[in-house]
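To close the section, here is one more complete example, presented without commentary so you can practise reading it yourself. The ligand is iron/sulfur cluster.
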Amino acid sequence: MSEVISRRSFLMGVGVGAASALAATAVEPVRASEPVAADSWGVLVDLTRCNGCDSCALACKEANQRPEPDTVPVSLNSDAYSFVDRRQVVSDAGIEQQMPIKRQCMHCLHPACVSACTVGALTKSADGPVVYNDKKCIGCRYCQYACPFGVPTYDWENPLGLIHKCQFCISRLEEGQQPACVAGCPTGALRFGRRSNLLAQAHAQIDTNAGRYIEQVYGEAEAGGTSILYLSGVPFAAMGLPTLDSQAPSHYAEAMMKKTPVIGLTVAALASGVYWLAKRREFLAQPQVVAEEVTHDR
Ligand code: SF4
Ligand code: SF4
Ligand code: SF4
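Output:
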C-alpha cells in the first residue's frame, strides 16, 4: 500500500470525522476524573542532577515505539512524548550557561485536558496517570487549547488525526516497573514514587542543602498540583516552566465546556473540514498514485 492515503480511506476519514463530531454534539460532556488518591504516583525531577544526556527522552521513544528511536527529540510532538529542553540561564554571578530540563505531560491532579474533552477520550486515574484513548477521540483538539503546559500534540499526518502525549508508561506501572524515562536516567535526576513521599523528600533536600535549591517545589501547588515535580537551583520561569497559581485550570475548562459544547464542536468540525479539503487537494495533485490506488480499490 502506498504511503499516500487511498481514495476510500480518505473518504472514510471524512465521513467518520464528520459523523463523530455531529454525534458528539448530541451528548452531554463526559467528566472522566477519579478522585486523586493520596498516594498517587509521581516523578521528582531534580534539575541540579540533570546533565542533559537525553537518555530519558530516547528511552521514552523506545518504550513508546516511536519512529527513529535513535534520533534525539527537540520538542514534544507525535513522535516524541518527552524531550530535554535547553535554556540559557544567567547566574547571580553573571555567568551565562545552558541548562537542561526534561519536559513531558505533568499528569495534573485536576487536568484541564480531561475537563475539556467532551467525549471522555482523556481520563484521570486515581493512581496519577492522565491517559488518552484514541478510540474515543474525535480530533477536536480542545485538550490542546486547555492544557496550561502545551503538552498534547496533534498528528496532522494521520488521516484521522490523533492526539499524542505521555501516558506515564501506565502499562509498565501495571507490571510493577518504573517509567522508562526514570529507568533510563543515569544520574538519579529522575525519581519515581508516591507523590506524597516525593514531596517530603524534596522539601528535606531543600532544607538540608542550603544554597543548592530555590525554596520551592514546582508542581506542589501550580495548577492545583501535578504528579511531575521539579527541584531547581534557578527560578522555574528561567527554565521555561509557566508561572501558575494554585487554581486548577480544569475549573475554567469545565465552565467553558458546559456552556459551549455544541458551538465548540461545530467550529472544530469546520476546522477539520478545512484540513480535509487541503489534504484532498494534495491527494488529487498526485495523479500517478491516484491511478494506482483506484486500481487496488476495485
Ligand atoms: S499537563 Fe496538560 S496534557 Fe498533561 S495532564 Fe496536565 S492538562 Fe493534561
Ligand atoms: S513516563 Fe513514559 S511516556 Fe512519559 S515521558 Fe516517561 S518514558 Fe515517556
Ligand atoms: S537521563 Fe537524566 S541526566 Fe540525562 S537528560 Fe534525562 S533527566 Fe537529565
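Once you have examined the C-alpha cells, check your reading against these statements. The beta strands are 41-46, 83-90, 96-103, 122-124, 130-132, 153-154, 163-164, 190-194, 228-231. Residues 7-27+261-297 form one domain.
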